[in-house]
From TrEMBL, chain B:
UniProt region (Disordered), positions on chain: 1-40
UniProt keywords, alphabetically: Cell membrane, Membrane, Transmembrane, Transmembrane helix
Chief site of localization: membrane
Keyword Cell membrane recorded: yes
PANTHER family documented for this protein: UPF0718 PROTEIN YCGR (PTHR34184:SF4)
Organism listed in the record: Streptomyces spiralis
InterPro entries, A to Z: DUF318 (IPR005524), UPF0718 (IPR052923)
Membrane topology listed for this record: Multi-pass membrane protein
UniProt-recorded name of the protein: Permease
Amino acid sequence: MFLVGAVLLHAGFTDLYLRYVKAGLRPLLLAAGAVLMVGAPAAVWYEFKGRRRHAQQDRREDAHAHRVHDDGPDPGDEHDHRVDNDHGHREARISWLLLVPLFALMLVAPPALGSYSAMRTGTALQQPYGYAKLPASDPVPISLVDYAGRAVYDHGRSLRNRKVRITGFVALDTKGAPYLVRMALNCCAADAQPVKLALMGDIPPVLRPDAWLQVTGVYTPKQTKDPVNNRPIPYLQVTEAKPVPTPRDPYDESWNR
Amino acid sequence: MATTRPALTTATDDRDAIVRAPDGPERPAETAGERTGGDRMAGDGWHVNSSLALITVLLLVVVVQGPIRSALAAPVMQSWMTVFVAVVLQALPFLVLGVLLSAVLAVFVPSSFFARALPNRPGLAVPVAGMAGAVLPGCECASVPVAGALVRRGVTPAAALAFLLSAPAINPVVLTATAVAFPRRPEMVLGRFAAGLLVACAMGWLWQRLGRTDWLRPPAHARYDGRSKGAAFWDSVRHDVMHAGGFLVLGAMAAATLKTVAPADWLRTAAGNPFTAVGALAVLAVVLSICSEADAFVAASLTQFSLTAKLVFLVVGPMIDLKLFAMQAGTFGRGFALRFAPATFVLAIAGAVVTGAVLL
């Protein structure tokens, strides 16, 4: 329990937690970690203190129990022990499973979802509620989800004659066609869904799946269909692409706002 | 029978007792012997062993971490681990919150209060208890012992069962989690509340009409009698975190496997037909046994399914699943669980489908 708390705090204080859950859960993670850190020694302390007294009590109860038992087995009897068992061994074998996520976090710290999950799931582009005015800078930094929404549902009206700069990771489909992908999530990686962007134009000759790229490009009306769920995927005419490190929060959280 | 056991038993006996602890009607003499002072000592020995084992496992894993890492480098394993860790990580805060609140309730609120608060007529007590479940937060793992305590303190079993079913399904913590998991669908929260309350009351009335007291074996012991409040509180917290946490890990593993390994079209085929979709998610809810404080997030991740099917998942899951069945059999007896669980399953599906048809 103490370990669980410690690992929660570790994940919360570093940016590690952003690989798995949305940023808004951070205070909850920290609070839960703190409670567990306090709770573990407290429980052990009380258990230690209580055990001696308990043993005396049990001896007394036992003497009483024997008298009852000597009269022959009674149906309630079986239950007594069950409750008592529950008492004595709170950590059943099931709690050992708690170690599995601990090891996963401490030793492996699996990366955020990447191209493998992205290509198994259909693009999850939703129609945006509205389109904010793009900043005047050139090129315009824009999120992948925002670009895809404008390209598909606004027919690129706000994107004409603008250079855009988009960050995402590379995924290749079975035919080797490159996509730029960002996973969007509601809450945690379990519900993350990809939003995909097909790349054309000046693409680097060698693309490694899961590598993060910052691409600069211009809007093109060309679209394709995601083979997984037949939803539209917009294209981007790439003029420049350069590798970038994985961003602090690898997911797109615009759905949470 | 306990007197026939020698006072000095080995730790092995004690471990035997643990192995059989979850259930099994043939309770051997060893467990009875555990209550003697000598066996308490053996119990101490086991605790030492458990921490020793913990350290051993930790060291072992650190030593062989290289091979483990390379074995886990495959993309399937990586995605599996990410989803698995994510489910555990986002559920833990809610689990801890629920466990704290349920410990407060179980320890600091006297059970007699519940008995006084309920109407005397069982028919009326059922919906009141159902509503009480909505106000009192707790995970389903916590509601089973609380319901057992209610029965023991003289609350009508029908009302206690309505509480047992409604408390984990529609309490504020769970509803908040549902609202967080479905940020754009507030009607899911409403649907979950309505269907949960409906099914809980229906089961309560059904029990009142058909139930027989000899199916029910009320618990004979109070869990927290004769100990200081602080001890009982932290003990409850630890018990619930360790137990519910373990089951949560199990559920997260199953969910991650489903998400990464199961062929996407398998689920999509099930999701395509409204009947199979409902059936598939109902069975999934039972098998996955996810804590009710976390199941909304899993439901949200099952993107292929209709909202009604997700509602079935959310209503069935907290009321009956594999771990709840085990806990009910342990608390109320196997005869009870065998009758209660299937009835709950059928009624929960029906209630959720009806609510879904009206609301979603």
